[in-house]
């Protein structure tokens, strides 16, 4: 019996809500028996399998076979990665561990046994929180680059080129159902002491959408003198564009919208994967791609869906329209945007029109 239920955090307190997992454990205890292998796949604070799942099983059966085998697949690739990724398994005891290894040995190329339920729980949190930390560092670099009028991608590419230490990440939004939640489960696991890095990284990544929204509003104000009634087209409402998804969990648009509303902007919305009703529910007016560029004062690209990567932005801007293109992922042709008379910007990138540009395709350090 595999338990793979949501383990959300409270939106206000950021404390984990484990009621779904507890309810699932009670149902298993009611309908199954002690020979059942119970597998926890949900992401949980360290100690949860033993503290929340085990008691109803032993209360009903007297004993239990229990393993923690964290689900570590990426959205859109779950079936492939179930086979290809190493499956980490921690057991309540030796019998449980053997049963868990037998189960996943029939599915995956590699099984990694660990010493306990708690070790397996911490593996999943360590993976996801490390990802959040990596991305937050790229965002930190971008914010510092913006302060000094630098291009964060130039800095990051030059830092990474043929350098043997770990690569720096590009700046970008960090959302979704896991990365926006699991750091708080790690913080919970740390107890009263808390964490030194994990919560700080999460705060930075949650601040980034607000920072971008504020920068877009200020650019519109600089160009028009006022933001009241200005039309902003937002491309990409799902939390990410690749692999394509309609998942709105942890999407940057949610913290952005209050900034836009306070500035009096009319927000137009487009996403190849998200329905018009969802755009409306989040405060936007659905629009088409061509009208996004022709009918808006500014365009904000939030995710990197392949449709946006393929845009002929020069043609879309050729007839006038948007005077600002804020390209969060730097996937559009900057020269085409500026040639059409629009200002181009991105995360940490508010270029001075008079700056000396490195030719496209040049290696860092080459002019």
Please tell me about this protein's structure.
With 367 residues, the chain is an alpha/beta fold. The chain has three domains: 2-115, NAD(P)-binding Rossmann-like Domain (Rossmann fold); 123-200, N-(1-d-carboxylethyl)-l-norvaline Dehydrogenase, domain 2 (Orthogonal Bundle), CATH 1.10.1040; 207-345, Rossmann fold (3-Layer(aba) Sandwich), CATH 3.40.50.720. The protein is 44% helix and 11% strand. Strands 8-7-6-9-10-11 form a six-stranded parallel β-sheet. A five-stranded mixed β-sheet has the order 1-2-3-4-5, with helices on both faces. Helix 4 links the parallel strand 4 (87-91) and strand 5. The protein is elongated and about 75 Å long. The relative contact order is 0.09. Mean pLDDT is 94; it is low at 359-367.
Radius of gyration over all CA atoms, rounded: 24 Å
Would you tell me the overall average pLDDT?
Answer: 94
The residue fraction in helices comes out at: 40-55%
Show unreliable segments.
359-367
Largest sheet: number of strands, sense, barrel closure: 6 strands, parallel
- CATH class label of the largest domain: Alpha Beta
What fraction of the residues are assigned to beta strands by DSSP? 5-15%
Order of helices and strands: EHEHEHEHEHHHHHEHEHEHEHHEHE
Tag the structure with descriptive keywords.
Rossmann fold; about 375 residues; N-(1-d-carboxylethyl)-l-norvaline Dehydrogenase, domain 2; alpha/beta; single chain
Helix-strand layout with pairing:
Blueprint: E1 2-3, H1 19-31, E2 37-40, H2 48-61, E3 65-68, H3 78-84, E4 87-91, H4 94-105, E5 111-114, H5 117-147, H6 152-160, H7 176-179, H8 182-190, H9 198-224, E6 231-235, H10 253-262, E7 266-270, H11 276-281, E8 285-286, H12 289-294, E9 298-301, H13 306-309, H14 313-317, E10 324-327, H15 334-339, E11 343-345
Parallel strand pairs: 1-2, 2-3, 4-5, 6-7, 6-9, 7-8, 9-10, 10-11
Antiparallel strand pairs: 3-4
């Amino acid at each position: 019996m595999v338990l793979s239920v949501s383990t959300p955090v409270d939106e206000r307190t950021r404390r984990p809500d484990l009621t779904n997992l507890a309810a699932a454990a009670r149902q298993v205890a009611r309908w199954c028996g002690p020979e059942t292998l119970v597998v926890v796949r949900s992401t949980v604070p360290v100690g949860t399998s033993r503290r929340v799942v085990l008691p109803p099983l032993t209360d009903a059966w007297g004993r239990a076979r229990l393993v923690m085998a964290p689900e570590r697949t990426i959205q859109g690739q779950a079936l492939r990665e179930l086979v290809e990724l190493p499956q980490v398994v921690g057991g309540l005891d030796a019998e449980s561990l053997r049963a868990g290894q037998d189960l996943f040995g029939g599915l995956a190329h590699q099984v990694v046994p660990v010493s306990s339920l708690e070790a397996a729980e911490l593996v999943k949190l360590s993976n996801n929180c490390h990802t959040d930390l990596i991305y937050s560092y790229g965002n930190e670099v971008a914010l510092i680059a913006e302060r000094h009028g630098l291009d964060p991608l130039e800095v990051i590419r030059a830092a990474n080129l043929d350098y043997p230490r770990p690569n720096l990440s590009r700046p970008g939004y960090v959302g979704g159902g896991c990365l926006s939640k699991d750091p708080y489960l790690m913080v919970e696991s740390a107890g009263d002491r808390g964490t030194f890095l994990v919560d700080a990284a999460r705060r930075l990544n949650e601040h980034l959408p607000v920072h971008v929204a504020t920068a877009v509003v200020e650019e519109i104000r600089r160009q028009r003198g006022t933001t009241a009634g200005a039309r902003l087209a937002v491309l990409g409402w799902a939390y990410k564009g690749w692999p394509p998804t309609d998942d709105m969990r942890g999407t940057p648009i949610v913290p952005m919208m209050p900034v836009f509303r306070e500035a009096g902007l009319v927000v137009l919305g487009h996403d190849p994967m998200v329905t018009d009703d969802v755009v409306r529910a989040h405060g936007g007016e659905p629009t088409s791609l061509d009208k996004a560029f022709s009918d808006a004062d500014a365009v904000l690209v939030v995710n990197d869906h392949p449709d946006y990567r393929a845009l002929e932005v020069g043609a879309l801007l050729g007839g006038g329209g948007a005077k600002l293109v804020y390209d969060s992922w730097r996937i559009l042709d900057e020269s085409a945007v500026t040639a059409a008379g629009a200002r181009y910007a991105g995360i940490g990138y508010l270029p001075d029109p008079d700056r000396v540009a490195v030719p496209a395709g040049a290696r860092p350090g080459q002019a």
